[in-house]
Amino acid sequence: MWYVSPMSAEPGRREQNKRRTRARIVETARRLFAERGFDAVTVVQVARAAGVSEGTVFNYFPAKEDLFYDGMEAFETLLVRAIRERSPAESVLSAFQRFVLDSTTRLAAEEITDVVAAAARVIAESRALQNRERAIVARYTDTLAAVIAEETGVDERDIEPWAVANGLMGVQQSLITYIRAEALEGRHGSSLAADAEAQAERAFARLETGLGGYAIRPPR
Questions:
Q1: Is the pLDDT of residue 162 over 70?
Q2: Which residues lie below 8 Å from residue 203, measured CB to CB, with a gap of 6+?
């Protein structure tokens, strides 16, 4: 993922120390995961390399997968904010598209592509990470569907908000899969950013125009 974490007020000294400790643990864990693979690294090894106790690691991260996906946790907050704070008369589709495209522009930075490629390698080798990512995305989709249901005034059991949420998240996840594959093949910088943006715009345009006339089988 390449989403920016939400900004917060300037923390006190104690909070700053906690954030530094957390950041050191995450940086150490990701370095070890990249070197050895996620499944081959234990929490004890991460703790020792980061200079903290195993208990300290678990205080910040209840599960080992949380060490890898720490950055994804901000996505849900940012997503809900983008939807709830969209301009009057702006659709959910438009707000979601803007949110995704704003994040995609960061791929123009060379170092971001390197991070994406490294993460893709680790994920590809770990079933545990793949399962956790699916669970996280499912939670995002549930949250988005609930927000849409609330704003449209329908019952949460109504399937339309769920169909919309799954469609939007489907584009976002397909885009991530595409970007990871391209990064692993050596694509990077502004070329990848522009290509990813074009892919996303085509997919969102299809959602906007609908599926009625898409992929109609020609007569034989």
A1: yes
A2: 171, 174, 175
